[in-house]
Amino acid sequence: MEKLTLGNVRLMALTRTRRRTASHVGAVVAFILVLIFGSPIFVDWVNDNTRPDTAGGLFLRTLAWPAWTFDSKAPVRDVLAQDLKAILFILFVAVFLAMMAGAELSRARGTLADFFSGWGAVIFAAALAGFITAFLSAHTGLYFALLWALTGAQYGLITGWIIALAQMGTRRP
Hints:
By secondary structure, the chain is mostly helical. The protein has six helices and two strands, in the order E-E-H-H-H-H-H-H. It comes from Dactylosporangium salmoneum.
């Protein structure tokens, strides 16, 4: 609480001094991206209206990577793997942003270091989420896990700057 004086009148100003941490902001932005762009409506629209051989189509299809669904026609293992991939991505973003905050406490502090560490955290989080959940799908195996990890890394590379920009000016844990 801060006291402000204006002449003889004292005003009590409630100021909010606590800022959100980078891991919280990154997790919220990751949740919003997954919620909107991973939704079945967006994924169906992207698959029906874009071509994978154009830059816009590549961006929109990559944005829809952590898709979640409740499709009753797909095998239960695939639905579980897809939904868990989206959840793990959000959790791993928060964990990696918190873990990479220690590097920013060293000599390379500042907004540029925040940006690149946030972007790197998203790449690692998406790759790890893809790798782990691939073992739950119907196409279990190391080959498919590596493919899912590469697709996750592609997602992090293409869209990680969004989360990195959002968490750039936040407080580190």
